[in-house]
Amino acid sequence: MAAPGCALSRWPLSALLLLLAARGADHADAQWSGEGTSPHLRSIFLGRCAEYLALLGPQLRDKNCTAIWEAFKVVLEKDPCSVLPSDYDLFINLSRHYIPRDKSLFWEHNQFLVANYADNTRRFMPLSDTLYGRTGDFLSWCRQQNAPGLNYESCPTSVDCENNAVDSFWKRASLQYAKDSSGVIHVMLNGSEPTGAYPIKGFFADYEVPYFQKDKVTRIEIWVMHEIGGPKLESCSEGSVKILEKRLKEVGFQHSCINDYLPVKLLKCVDHSTHPDCALKSAAASIQREVASIYTEQGASLAGPLLVALAAGAQR
C-alpha cells in the first residue's frame, strides 16, 4: 500500500509536470492579500479624468488626460513590490492643481463621511476630490510579478510589501496635497474608532502632517466625530487626539479641536433622525422637526444642505 500522499507517483511524468505547473500558476495569481487590478482600469481612469475636467474643474481644461495616463501607467511595468512614491512624480506634476484656500479636509477613519460632507468640492476639497486623487480612488492596480501584463487576481498591500503600487500612489498624492493646502486646515477624526482616532503611524501622520507649509497654513481645526449610537472612545484632549494636539503645538501650528462639529453631525443625523444622539434642545429641536418634514417631502438632496446651513448659522 502506497504511503498517504504518494498517489501522484503513479501518474505519467508529463501529466505530473502539467499539474504542478498549473498549481504553481494558480498560486502565483493568488499570492497577494489585496484585490487584483480593477477591470477596465484605463477606461475608468480616462473617464474620471475627462469628467473631472468637464464638471468640476473647467478651469483645468488645458490638462491632457492621455498624457496623465501615460505618466501613471509607467508603474504598471514595474515589479509589484518595487514601486516607489517618486515613480508617480510626473503623474502628479501633470495632474496637480490649485487647492482653494481654507478648503482642504484631511481625515482618518472617516472616508465616506468626508466625501458626503465635501459634496464634490462644493464645501471642501479632500484629496479624493482633487484630479489626481479622483483618478485613483477605490481602484487597484499592479503588474504580474514575473511576467508582463496586469495581475487581475490579486495585488500586494502593505501586509505583503511596503513599496506596492497603490500605497506608493497615495503616499505621493498625500504629501502633494498637504504641500498645496493653505489657510485653515480641517481634519476629521473618528472618536469611536477602537484603534484610536489619530493613528500614530498612518497616511495623515506620516505623509501629510510633516508636509504642511508653515508659511501657508494659518491654523489647523480638528473635528472629532463620534458614530451615532456608537461609543465615545476618544474626544478632544484625550488619547491619540491629545498626541496629535501636542505634535501640532511642538511644530508651531496653531490649532483648535471641536467634538462632534455640528454641521457634520447634523449630516450624520439625516440617516438617524429619531436616535437620541440626534435630539437637539430648545429652538434647535424645532428646526430638526422642520428639516425632518422637508426630508420626507423633498428628499435628502434638499434636507442635507439645509441641515448644514442651519448648523453653520447656529455656531456663529
Number of helices: 12
Instruction: Please compute the radius of gyration using only Cα atoms.
Output: 24 Å
Distance between the termini: 86 Å
Q: How would you sum up the global shape?
A: globular
In short:
By secondary structure, the protein is α/β, with parallel strands linked by helices. The protein is built from 12 helices and 6 strands.
Explain how this protein is built.
Helix 3 (65-72) runs antiparallel to helix 4, helix 10 packs antiparallel against helix 12 (300-314) and helix 11 runs antiparallel to helix 12 (300-314). The model is unreliable at 1-13 and 15-29 (pLDDT under 50). The protein is of the alpha/beta class. The strands form two sheets. A four-stranded parallel β-sheet has the order 2-4-5-6, sandwiched between helices. It has a two-stranded antiparallel sheet with strand order 1-3. It has twelve helices and six strands.
Question: What is the strand and helix layout of this fold?
Answer:
Blueprint: H1 13-29, E1 34-35, H2 41-56, H3 65-72, H4 89-95, E2 105-107, H5 111-118, H6 131-136, E3 154-155, H7 165-180, E4 183-190, H8 203-207, E5 217-225, H9 239-250, E6 255-259, H10 262-269, H11 282-298, H12 300-314
Parallel strand pairs: 2-4, 4-5, 5-6
Antiparallel strand pairs: 1-3
Helix pairs in contact: 3-4, 10-12, 11-12
